[in-house]
């Protein structure tokens, strides 16, 4: 409903920046809660043997929409500047109606008094801290998020400094995103063929090799092609981690654990943007690429020598069992008050 207020305000001639900020805030807030509920509900709808395929499908859907959304929004804006907001709002309404037809009971198996939000967040953080594998994985994700969030800005400036037009930069980023979509399409197959530790460690070494290549070219097409290769392996990593969490984390805690994970891994985004600006000012685009490559190489080495990552076993559906690093259930003495 928040989005629908925008076209109404545009047609009435009363749209303000304050209203747009409020709509963006509501959209972002709702997105967080929806994604947490989605991740917790999926293992209740899909059997464990199909969980990787389900996460890969969701990953492909998300990346496909991200790739197709901006051009579609631009086309709708040329027809009527209120139309993108109206179509987006109607799409959310259609999605809400579709969810009503989901017949599976999504209530947790264990029922108890609802926790306040802050105690739920602490429960998720406590679980993450006590699970060595999840803790190590989230640290790796946080570093990669920081690097790639900064890298996008650096690449845009790098291409622009060598005369790339906005249209070519847009095509460069589109090619970059297309690699992620292709990776999402094969992620489920890779899950059944490669072990968890091979994906976790191998992904960072692939990125460590590819990132320095950005400094060797200023062509938007070549930058986009290298970016597509880096984006290609990202969904495979995501599907592995989400499947691990969906199988090993108790369902009643999964939403809280994902909330803690998002807090840690998304919290680096503003720092990354600030860091990119500092690097660009201090050492320029090529120097910034070198610094980000060094961070990625250090992370790859850390992942390789980490006993927690090296001793992790493949997920079910491959060759071995999931590593038993799940913390014991919280006992009444340590459970936060509800």
Automatic annotation (TrEMBL):
- Give the span(s) annotated as Disordered: 312-338
Q: Name one GO cellular component term.
A: plasma membrane
Q: Which organism is it from?
A: Actinoplanes campanulatus
Q: Where are the transmembrane segments?
A: 12-34, 82-102, 136-157, 169-187, 194-215, 221-247, 259-280, 286-305
**Which ranges are annotated Pro residues under compositional bias?**
325-338
Give a yes or no for keyword Signal in this entry: no
UniProt keyword terms in alphabetical order: Cell membrane, Membrane, Transmembrane, Transmembrane helix
Tell me where it resides: Cell membrane
The GO terms this record gives for MF are: transmembrane transporter activity
- Domain of life, source organism: Bacteria
Q: How does it sit in the membrane?
A: Multi-pass membrane protein
Any matching Pfam family:
MFS_1
Q: Which InterPro entries has this protein been placed in? A: MFS, MFS_trans_sf
Its recorded name reads MFS family permease
């Amino acid at each position: 409903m928040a989005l629908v207020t925008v076209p109404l305000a545009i047609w009435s001639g009363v749209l303000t920046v304050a209203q747009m900020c409020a709509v963006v805030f509501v959209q972002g807030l709702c997105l967080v809660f929806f994604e947490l509920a989605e991740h917790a509900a999926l293992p209740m709808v899909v059997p464990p043997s199909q969980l990787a395929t389900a996460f890969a499908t969701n990953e492909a859907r998300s990346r496909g929409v991200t790739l197709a959304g901006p051009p579609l929004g631009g086309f709708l804006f040329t027809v009527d500047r209120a139309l993108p907001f109206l179509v987006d709002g109607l799409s959310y309404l259609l999605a809400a109606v579709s969810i009503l037809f989901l017949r599976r009971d999504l209530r947790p198996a264990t029922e108890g008094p609802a926790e306040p939000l802050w105690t739920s967040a602490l429960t998720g953080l406590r679980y993450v801290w006590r699970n060595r594998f999840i803790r190590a994985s989230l640290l790796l994700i946080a570093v990669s998020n920081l690097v790639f969030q900064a890298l996008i800005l650096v690449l845009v400036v790098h291409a622009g400094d060598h005369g790339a037009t906005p249209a070519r930069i847009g095509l460069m980023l589109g090619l970059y995103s297309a690699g992620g979509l292709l990776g999402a399409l094969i992620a489920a197959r890779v899950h059944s063929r490669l072990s968890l530790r091979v994906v976790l460690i191998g992904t960072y070494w692939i990125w460590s090799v590819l990132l320095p290549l950005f400094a060797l070219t200023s062509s938007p097409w070549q930058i986009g092609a290298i970016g597509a290769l880096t984006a290609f392996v990202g969904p495979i990593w995501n599907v592995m981690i989400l499947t691990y969490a969906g199988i090993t984390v108790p369902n009643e805690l999964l939403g809280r654990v994902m909330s803690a994970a998002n807090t840690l891994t998304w919290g680096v985004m503003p720092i990354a943007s600030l860091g990119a600006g500092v690097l660009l000012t201090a050492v320029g685009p090529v120097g910034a690429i070198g610094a980000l490559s060094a961070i990625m190489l250090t992370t790859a080495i850390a992942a390789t020598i980490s006993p927690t990552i090296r001793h992790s076993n493949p997920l079910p559906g491959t060759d071995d069992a999931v590593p038993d690093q799940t913390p014991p259930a919280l006992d009444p003495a340590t459970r936060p008050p509800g």
